[in-house]
Amino acid sequence: MEIKKIFEAESFVNGHGVEARKFHQDEYMMMVHLNLNPGDTIAKHAAPLDVRFLVLEGKGIVEIRDESKEVEANTLIESPANCGHGWRNESDSVLRIVVMKMQASTKK
């Protein structure tokens, strides 16, 4: 059994200026914890992998393709490979998200 704790992973500022912690990576999946403070934004960008976002705390605006939706804690959002996605924290509290990037599925 292997147990990993998010806050034991080293913190860094990602390319979007947001605090991140990569706490898992293998040949199939990478998992990163993001901490978006009020006003933080992750510009819309595309990834060549399927991405899942699990909101752990707070609420924020997720953009996928040309759709925007406010989401809150305990919500899972799916973003297919090669489509643009981004985040905005317009609230007055922290938004914590786990990002799971995995090999693109073959289903259409």
Automatic annotation (TrEMBL):
Any Pfam family from its record, for instance, is: Cupin_2
Q: Which residues form the Cupin type-2 domain?
A: 34-99
CDD domains on file: cupin_Moth_1897
SUPFAM superfamilies given in the database record: RmlC-like cupins
Taxonomically, the superkingdom here is Bacteria
What is the name attached to this protein's record?
Answer: Cupin domain-containing protein
Protein species of origin: Paralabilibaculum antarcticum
